[in-house]
Amino acid sequence: MRYRVVLLGVLILASAGCKMFRGPDKTGEFRLSSEKFLAESYYLFGYTYEDSEFYRYPFEKDPIPDIINEGFRVLQGEETIELPGFTTPGRTNGFVLVGEFDNLADARDFYKDYKTVDDGLQFTVESDIVEVHQVWVQKTSAGNYVKLLVKEAESLEGEEGNKYSEVLVEYAYQPDGSTEF
Question: Per residue in 159-178, pLDDT tens?
Fold first, then answer.
């Protein structure tokens, strides 16, 4: 019986505790959608770098994510579409665009070579419209830096005609507040 309890403890630590020992993912990729879901009220999913997890926002029981795609409704011809836009729900710090490119290869080269956050950047809580092949820097509410490479950005329509947008982002996160990636 004692061995079972010890084994169970080891299994719990191994499955839940690995991230605790190695820390957050410093690089990766995630897809943010502005599609809203309904529980007691509407929410969408945002990403938290420190936990490397998606959380519902606004949702009382979930932590506030570092980044969401709130989307911007725009009129294109006679049709309304939604284009992606970053927001930091913590309402502090935010985003700055550091590069725009015509193709993914040039954007990726700039992203890889962008090793230090420039001095004097002016961060805003909400980005402008996010487009493919852009490179952004985010300063989180915890004071940590993230560089973001926008690989895909699209305007979509759900089954019931609801408009939303999605953006696929590659990121590098600096969890200790350093300006060096």
Answer: 888 999 999 999 999 999 99
CB distance 99 to 107 below 8 Å: yes
Give the Cα separation of 26 and 23 in Å (integer): 9
User: Three-state SS string across the chain, please?
Assistant: CHHHHHHHHHHHHHHHHHHHHHCCCCEEEEEEECCCEECCCEEEEEEECCCCEEEEECCCCCCCCCEEECCEEEEECCEEEEECEEECCCCCCEEEEEEECCCHHHHHHHHHHCCECCCCCCCECEEEECCCCEEEEEECCCCCEEEEEEEEEEEEECCCCCEEEEEEEEEEEECCCCCEC
Could you count the other beta carbons within 10 Å of the beta carbon of residue 140? 23
> What are the φ and ψ backbone dihedral angles of 142, each rounded to 5 degrees?
-85, -5
pLDDT tens digit sequence for 123-153: 999 999 999 999 999 999 999 999 999 999 9
Question: Cα–Cα distances in Å, from 81 out to 39, 57, 161, 166?
Answer: 24, 22, 11, 12
Residue 14 has pLDDT above 50, yes or no: no
Q: Is the Cβ–Cβ distance between 107 and 120 less than 8 Å?
A: no
